[in-house]
Amino acid sequence: MTISHLLQSQMSVGVASARSQVCLKRLLDEPQEHSLKCKRPYLAPPPLTPSLSPCLRPRGPASQPTHSQSQSRIGPYFLVEPCEGVETYWAVHTHTQQRYTCKVLPLRGYQEHLAPYAQLGHHDNVCVPSDVVIGQDSVYVFKPGHHGDMHAYVRSRKRLDEEEAGLLFAQMLNAVTHCHRHGVVLRDLKLRKFTFTDRHRTRLALQSLDDAVLLPDANADALTDRHGCPAYVGPELLSGGKASYSGRAADIWSLGVSLYTMLIGRYPFQDTQPAALFAKIRRGTFSLPDWLSPRAKCLIGCMLRKSPAERLQASELLMHPWLSESKAAAARQRAPQHSWFSLPHAIKH
């Protein structure tokens, strides 16, 4: 969602493998004019060029998906049903029966969408494409299936205890730190972007880089366009005019909103009317319940600062005592507990 559109209307108020990563980089080097000449009625490889790796070419003829079909064949995959997100579907591999998500992109400009993934490389908390299939009019980007997103999980749990929230938020922060270090600003950062990679819902990965921007200079993150979910945007994005803002600092604000929501069970700034919501965000005033620990309050306060310059960087937030405390508490729970009768002892003859 583009924030500037809302403001104008309310002005009064893991890589699956190293092979996949190499193939992705080669695909990004492929000139787009070659693929745009494909006019065949079935999925077929674009004209052969040395820069296109065979592992990312279509696996065989397949019809284009239609919304009226319950299942559509795309290369070695079946698109089963729509899932959360625009033009996103659940998919099943025809041979392995493994589940995937499939993002359907226009053929023109798809390389720009994939560029941030190639820049980031492998990271445990960032989900990158495992396969890309080029069709006649669209490109199909496949990623490993997941077990639900953080937004739905928090809603089902109402709110999370500090220990669980700390373990999950540390993984979210690790993903954002990795992106920022490699010159990728996420912009539309929110709980829904993070999904569980295991059925026990203990491991998280950043599922989507939609709306992310690849900085030409990793040391300069000044942006002018305004993207994001209204509940997660920082006050600097709501100022009038076209003044630039720090993309990384805006991501940190969104992380603060995410952690607040995980621990409290509601957004720090909320209103049914966009104009009233934006007014609350501009003021930057929020409340914290007394039962929240001082360290958790401190960490939220380090991110939800009205002045972007006063917010800590992602790498600095990783060293916060609250995250270390949550990690230590989880380690104590995982440590085996020995009773007196289970300890080994020497046998005397």
UniProtKB/TrEMBL annotation:
Keyword Kinase: no
Pfam family, one: Pkinase
Compositional bias of kind Polar residues: 63-72
Domain Protein kinase: 78-323
One Gene Ontology cellular component annotation held by this UniProt entry: nucleus
Region (Disordered): 53-72
GO MF annotation list: ATP binding; mitogen-activated protein kinase kinase binding; protein kinase activity; protein kinase inhibitor activity
PANTHER family associated with the record: SER/THR PROTEIN KINASE-TRB (PTHR22961), TRIBBLES HOMOLOG 3 (PTHR22961:SF14)
Protein name: Tribbles pseudokinase 3
Protein's organism: Myripristis murdjan
